[in-house]
Amino acid sequence: MCACLSCEEQMVMIPEFPVPTGDRVVLIEELTGVDCPNCPKGSTILNNLIAQFEGQVIGIGIHGDLLTTPLSGSKYDFRNEFSQQIEQSFGIFAKPCAVINRVQFPDQGELEIYGEDTWLTYVVQELEKAPKIELSVSSAYNSSNRTAAIEVNATGLENVSDQLKLSVVITEGNIIDVQKDQSEIIQEYNHKHVLRTMLTNWDGDNFSSGIDVGQTVTSSFNFEVPEEEGLWKIEDLEVVVYVTGPDGVLQAAETHLSE
Amino acid sequence: MTFRHFITIFCLCLCFAIGGLAQETGRFSGGFQSQANFFLRDSLIGAAGIPQYDRQLFGAQGWLDLKYSVNGFDMGLRFDLFNNSNLRNPNFSFTDQGIGRWFISKQIDKFSFTVGHIYDQIGSGIIYRAFEERPLFIDNALYGARVAYDFNDDWQAKAFTGRQKLVFDAYESIIKGAAIEGFHNFEAAGVSIVPGIGVVNRTLDDQTMESIVGILTGYIDSERVKPVHNVYVGSIFNTLNAGKFVWYVESGVKSSDVFNDPTAQREVFGGSTVTGSFVKKPGSVIYSSLSYAAKGLGITVEGKRTEAFNLRTDPTLLLNNGIINFLPPMNRQNTYRLTTRYSPATQDLSELAFQGDIRYSFNRKTSILFNASNITDLDGELLYREFFTEFNYKYKRDWQIKTGFQIQNYNQAVYEVKPEVPLVETFVPYVDFLYRITRKKSLRTEIQYMKVGPDGDTKQDYGDWLFAQLEYNIVPGWSFVASDMFNTAPGKNSPIDQETGEKLSLHYPRFDVFYTHESNRFGLSYVKQVEGVVCTGGICRLEPAFSGVQFTINSTF
Fold first, then answer.
1. Contact status, residue A156 vs residue A219, Cβ threshold 8 Å
2. What is the ipTM score, two decimals?
3. Is the pTM here over 0.90, yes or no?
4. Which of B98, B173, B235, B438 is in the most buried spot, having the most CB atoms within 10 Å?
């Protein structure tokens, strides 16, 4: 047996990719823009998180103010009053960044998290939390009048006494349009989960003044999909719902508009 | 009582106590600097969309520096204030105030120590430089302790440890280092040397390491690297003085470390690729300058090669945050408005740069200057090239003229991360004419024109510019300045008239009044400023357009 002296540091081991075990669904609000050359990387990271944590991560692409002015070759303008108000409420100063479950993490000075490579860490932290409510959303689409009947159900898993708000967002994916990248302007970029409109206020509607274990709160919405003009393609529309309390998003859910 | 209040009271008590006990009279000195901005929204030039323009309307920042020396003690305290300030981030509003710096140092025979916030550097700063650059919101002071020992008048050793300052706090990683610097004169040979050697170590804290591990957890196996807590950098340097020649050389090396390479390609889950990845590599820098000075003639040539020399207190930090070292710039540090419009930031991952400078004075009246620089990355891609000339002529004390031109190639895609932009080509002739009306009154004019290259059927970037400035000085005290920067031929990025779709030729006027009384200087300015890169000593950042009124105070006592 020998005693060995060494000033060489012990190597840090990188753990395997985490596999969540709970039912928590995490909402990532990605602050992005067509005029933002670093944003395609952020979107790729977000899409990876959605794929890697299938069914447990929901993304919304917020095209608010910063770097969102359509480019000279743009077919569409993704900005709308909801995305602008949400972005302004975060007070961001660069893109891409993401707000994860609207939680301000202890090592972050703001809600938004810059450095897309770090998003995974915070997503994992949120996935490890047990959900306080169970949330589901269903959509019954009537093609004859392009109207969807949307129903949201929340059931308490813990007693929550805070005022809860519900947000209902319509997102659209598979929108092919130009996007600035670091080295080029991508002519046929696939924009995913773009916030198109909301069926509630931008910061949510009052949903319930608290919820008890086993109590179910329901809310219904009708949404008439605007005429399809390149955008508003029924098959690419998603309904995203989330319930917020004072400490952020309690739970999120999504479904195709035409289930 | 907060820690900040404690420090304040502690320092003040110490000042009074030592002052009261002093056998000798102490010396108080200091300075006050402040800038107040009144924001006037102008969405046409892009001065809009941040809180200051939309609702706050006013922002300010200020610094009060106090220094006191007595009985071999030096101590200082600085109060920093930021109220709705756009200095930390030009697109954001920042408010905070407190003790920005304090320090106490004492010389005891050949030994000295300093504690608090310490500014210092090793060699030219390639491996370590703790400094402050207020216009760029850089304050990299080491919050810790430094000891030094003078072996004799020529040789000194120093060591330090601490954490890098973060506004009113400090980063968690620990920085420590040591250096020996000296001087030796070979009298017989007429040669002297100023050699030195230094080492610096940075140890990551557990939380920062967790953050890096969290990032790397998301990488697929083939892209993962193993991070280390400790990075070591070392440099050896020397200045050789031999007659009319001065030769400086410094070589720095860095141990293998994880850092963010924004150009690295990385495969991600699902098979797609992203640009920008954490990589692990060792780094190196070699820098040298050779100067020759004879009667009327001065020649300087410089060269620098940089590879993977990103050195930060936390590798996840971006932009100018948390930088431990300083890489000297390799282009001329210009001063005129249009000759500074495209300035290259020093590249820490891949750069090969050369610069030459020749000055010749024919007599006391007439002199000329030529400067040329060429910067590429290590793969040979041109980043920046400049050729600059200046002709200077003085006629008695009556008038003086400086004139010349600048030719530039500027890789905007790299320096400003703008895709599909061509290498910006500029040609800038300029004239600077000073006329003394009387012994107390003078008039100075500057006229510059920037012609840029074509970009398809339009001009590159913002196109061509004309800048003119008129400055009227009355000694002592007053200075009145009026200038305008006019977009004579708008370019691809110039603002567009929403109704006609035409590119707009905009004026960016500026009016200043400065009043100087003894060591106090006051300025009131109306400013409309186009977006551009602002650089100080090779460190740059992209500044958005500004529109508003500024009031400045600079005072020393």
1. no
2. 0.78
3. no
4. B235
